[in-house]
Amino acid sequence: MESKGKFIVLEGIEGCGKGTQTKFLSDFLSQKGLEVINKKYPEYGFPIGDLLDQWLHKKFELNVETQALLFFADFVKDKETLENNFKSGKMVIGDRYFTGTIVYQYINGLPLEKLLELAKLFDLRKPDLTIYIKISPEESFRRKMKQKGIENMDRHEADKKFLNSLYETYEKMSHENVFCEWTVIDGEKAPEEVFKDILEVINKKLGI
Questions:
Q1: Measured between alpha carbons, how far is 194 from 85 in angstroms, rounded to an integer?
Q2: pTM for the whole thing?
Q3: Which of 26, 29, 128, 132 counts the highest number of beta carbons within 10 A?
Q4: Are 100 and 41 in contact (CB under 8 A)?
Q5: How many CB atoms lie within 10 A of CB 141?
Protein backbone atom coordinates (compact mmCIF):
# COMPACT_ATOMS: atom_id res chain seq x y z
CA MET A 1 0.00 0.00 0.00
CA GLU A 2 1.30 3.45 -0.88
CA SER A 3 2.30 5.66 2.03
CA LYS A 4 0.08 8.60 1.16
CA GLY A 5 -2.99 8.80 3.40
CA LYS A 6 -6.53 8.32 2.16
CA PHE A 7 -9.79 10.16 2.80
CA ILE A 8 -12.86 7.94 3.25
CA VAL A 9 -16.27 9.58 3.76
CA LEU A 10 -19.42 7.86 4.99
CA GLU A 11 -22.68 9.51 3.96
CA GLY A 12 -26.40 8.87 4.33
CA ILE A 13 -29.64 10.09 5.82
CA GLU A 14 -30.32 10.29 9.54
CA GLY A 15 -29.93 6.97 11.32
CA CYS A 16 -28.17 5.14 8.49
CA GLY A 17 -25.41 3.93 10.83
CA LYS A 18 -22.53 6.23 9.90
CA GLY A 19 -21.32 6.46 13.49
CA THR A 20 -21.33 2.70 13.99
CA GLN A 21 -19.57 2.03 10.70
CA THR A 22 -17.01 4.77 11.38
CA LYS A 23 -16.07 3.00 14.62
CA PHE A 24 -15.90 -0.41 12.92
CA LEU A 25 -13.73 0.98 10.15
CA SER A 26 -11.48 2.97 12.48
CA ASP A 27 -10.85 -0.10 14.64
CA PHE A 28 -10.20 -2.27 11.57
CA LEU A 29 -7.67 0.13 10.04
CA SER A 30 -5.94 0.69 13.38
CA GLN A 31 -5.54 -3.06 13.81
CA LYS A 32 -3.81 -3.12 10.43
CA GLY A 33 -1.22 -0.71 11.84
CA LEU A 34 -2.56 2.42 10.13
CA GLU A 35 -2.91 5.79 11.86
CA VAL A 36 -6.56 6.87 11.78
CA ILE A 37 -8.15 10.29 12.24
CA ASN A 38 -11.93 10.44 12.70
CA LYS A 39 -13.83 13.59 11.70
CA LYS A 40 -17.55 14.10 12.28
CA TYR A 41 -19.39 17.01 10.67
CA PRO A 42 -20.84 19.21 11.99
CA GLU A 43 -17.97 19.12 14.48
CA TYR A 44 -19.62 19.79 17.82
CA GLY A 45 -17.43 21.15 20.61
CA PHE A 46 -15.99 23.82 18.30
CA PRO A 47 -17.56 27.26 17.66
CA ILE A 48 -18.86 26.60 14.14
CA GLY A 49 -20.22 23.16 14.96
CA ASP A 50 -21.89 24.39 18.14
CA LEU A 51 -23.57 27.21 16.22
CA LEU A 52 -24.92 24.67 13.72
CA ASP A 53 -26.12 22.46 16.57
CA GLN A 54 -28.10 25.33 18.04
CA TRP A 55 -29.65 26.03 14.65
CA LEU A 56 -30.51 22.34 14.16
CA HIS A 57 -32.32 22.36 17.50
CA LYS A 58 -34.28 25.47 16.50
CA LYS A 59 -32.63 27.94 18.87
CA PHE A 60 -32.65 30.45 15.98
CA GLU A 61 -33.15 30.60 12.22
CA LEU A 62 -30.62 31.07 9.40
CA ASN A 63 -31.20 31.71 5.72
CA VAL A 64 -30.01 29.06 3.28
CA GLU A 65 -26.88 30.95 2.22
CA THR A 66 -25.72 31.36 5.83
CA GLN A 67 -26.41 27.67 6.52
CA ALA A 68 -24.31 26.64 3.53
CA LEU A 69 -21.43 28.94 4.44
CA LEU A 70 -21.35 27.70 8.04
CA PHE A 71 -21.32 24.05 6.98
CA PHE A 72 -18.66 24.87 4.42
CA ALA A 73 -16.56 26.75 6.97
CA ASP A 74 -16.64 23.65 9.18
CA PHE A 75 -14.69 21.73 6.52
CA VAL A 76 -12.41 24.56 5.41
CA LYS A 77 -11.20 25.16 8.98
CA ASP A 78 -9.59 21.70 8.85
CA LYS A 79 -8.09 21.99 5.38
CA GLU A 80 -4.42 22.43 6.32
CA THR A 81 -4.60 19.91 9.17
CA LEU A 82 -6.17 17.27 6.93
CA GLU A 83 -3.61 17.80 4.19
CA ASN A 84 -0.79 17.34 6.71
CA ASN A 85 -2.43 14.12 7.89
CA PHE A 86 -2.63 12.80 4.34
CA LYS A 87 0.99 13.70 3.62
CA SER A 88 2.11 11.78 6.69
CA GLY A 89 0.16 8.70 5.59
CA LYS A 90 -2.76 8.89 7.99
CA MET A 91 -6.22 7.56 7.11
CA VAL A 92 -8.99 10.11 7.63
CA ILE A 93 -12.57 8.88 8.05
CA GLY A 94 -15.29 11.48 7.68
CA ASP A 95 -18.73 10.98 9.21
CA ARG A 96 -20.29 13.28 6.59
CA TYR A 97 -18.45 15.92 4.59
CA PHE A 98 -19.14 18.46 1.83
CA THR A 99 -20.99 15.67 0.00
CA GLY A 100 -23.66 15.88 2.70
CA THR A 101 -23.78 19.68 2.56
CA ILE A 102 -24.47 19.44 -1.18
CA VAL A 103 -27.49 17.25 -0.45
CA TYR A 104 -28.93 19.29 2.42
CA GLN A 105 -28.47 22.73 0.87
CA TYR A 106 -29.70 21.58 -2.55
CA ILE A 107 -32.94 20.54 -0.84
CA ASN A 108 -33.12 23.98 0.80
CA GLY A 109 -32.97 25.64 -2.61
CA LEU A 110 -29.31 26.56 -3.10
CA PRO A 111 -28.27 25.83 -6.70
CA LEU A 112 -25.84 22.95 -7.08
CA GLU A 113 -23.61 25.10 -9.31
CA LYS A 114 -23.05 27.60 -6.48
CA LEU A 115 -22.08 24.87 -4.04
CA LEU A 116 -19.61 23.35 -6.50
CA GLU A 117 -18.19 26.80 -7.22
CA LEU A 118 -17.47 27.21 -3.51
CA ALA A 119 -15.62 23.90 -3.46
CA LYS A 120 -13.58 24.94 -6.48
CA LEU A 121 -12.85 28.41 -5.10
CA PHE A 122 -11.38 27.01 -1.88
CA ASP A 123 -9.82 23.97 -3.57
CA LEU A 124 -11.74 21.65 -1.25
CA ARG A 125 -10.25 18.17 -1.23
CA LYS A 126 -12.32 15.42 -2.82
CA PRO A 127 -12.61 12.15 -0.87
CA ASP A 128 -10.70 9.14 -2.19
CA LEU A 129 -13.85 7.16 -1.48
CA THR A 130 -17.39 8.25 -0.61
CA ILE A 131 -19.70 5.51 0.64
CA TYR A 132 -23.43 6.24 0.72
CA ILE A 133 -25.11 3.97 3.30
CA LYS A 134 -28.63 3.72 1.92
CA ILE A 135 -31.72 3.30 4.09
CA SER A 136 -35.35 4.30 3.48
CA PRO A 137 -36.90 7.44 5.02
CA GLU A 138 -39.24 5.21 7.03
CA GLU A 139 -36.32 3.25 8.48
CA SER A 140 -34.52 6.50 9.24
CA PHE A 141 -37.44 7.85 11.27
CA ARG A 142 -37.93 4.52 13.07
CA ARG A 143 -34.29 4.32 14.13
CA LYS A 144 -34.10 7.92 15.34
CA MET A 145 -37.37 7.62 17.23
CA LYS A 146 -36.05 4.53 19.01
CA GLN A 147 -32.69 6.19 19.70
CA LYS A 148 -33.79 9.64 20.85
CA GLY A 149 -37.55 9.94 21.19
CA ILE A 150 -39.44 12.65 19.31
CA GLU A 151 -38.69 15.35 21.91
CA ASN A 152 -34.91 15.08 21.40
CA MET A 153 -34.83 14.78 17.60
CA ASP A 154 -33.49 17.75 15.63
CA ARG A 155 -35.37 19.64 12.92
CA HIS A 156 -34.26 17.20 10.20
CA GLU A 157 -34.65 13.91 12.07
CA ALA A 158 -38.27 14.65 13.05
CA ASP A 159 -39.41 15.96 9.64
CA LYS A 160 -40.78 13.07 7.56
CA LYS A 161 -41.27 15.23 4.48
CA PHE A 162 -37.67 16.43 4.71
CA LEU A 163 -36.43 12.84 5.16
CA ASN A 164 -38.19 11.86 1.92
CA SER A 165 -36.51 14.75 0.09
CA LEU A 166 -33.20 13.81 1.70
CA TYR A 167 -33.48 10.24 0.48
CA GLU A 168 -34.39 11.30 -3.06
CA THR A 169 -31.54 13.81 -3.21
CA TYR A 170 -28.94 11.38 -1.87
CA GLU A 171 -30.12 8.99 -4.59
CA LYS A 172 -29.68 11.67 -7.25
CA MET A 173 -26.26 12.87 -6.10
CA SER A 174 -24.88 9.35 -5.64
CA HIS A 175 -26.10 8.14 -9.04
CA GLU A 176 -24.69 11.22 -10.76
CA ASN A 177 -21.39 11.09 -8.80
CA VAL A 178 -21.68 14.76 -7.91
CA PHE A 179 -18.38 16.34 -6.70
CA CYS A 180 -16.68 12.91 -6.48
CA GLU A 181 -17.24 9.22 -7.10
CA TRP A 182 -19.90 7.65 -4.85
CA THR A 183 -20.42 3.98 -3.93
CA VAL A 184 -23.81 2.81 -2.64
CA ILE A 185 -24.13 0.26 0.20
CA ASP A 186 -27.36 -1.30 1.51
CA GLY A 187 -27.64 0.07 5.06
CA GLU A 188 -30.71 -1.93 6.10
CA LYS A 189 -28.73 -5.12 6.69
CA ALA A 190 -27.31 -6.04 10.10
CA PRO A 191 -24.43 -3.67 11.03
CA GLU A 192 -21.86 -6.47 10.68
CA GLU A 193 -23.10 -7.25 7.16
CA VAL A 194 -22.99 -3.57 6.21
CA PHE A 195 -19.41 -3.41 7.44
CA LYS A 196 -18.49 -6.49 5.43
CA ASP A 197 -19.79 -4.74 2.30
CA ILE A 198 -17.85 -1.58 3.18
CA LEU A 199 -14.64 -3.55 3.56
CA GLU A 200 -15.17 -5.17 0.13
CA VAL A 201 -15.55 -1.70 -1.42
CA ILE A 202 -12.46 -0.35 0.35
CA ASN A 203 -10.41 -3.33 -0.75
CA LYS A 204 -11.60 -3.00 -4.34
CA LYS A 205 -11.23 0.79 -4.60
CA LEU A 206 -8.22 1.49 -2.37
CA GLY A 207 -6.48 -1.87 -2.06
CA ILE A 208 -6.71 -1.90 1.74
A1: 27
A2: 0.91
A3: 132
A4: yes
A5: 21
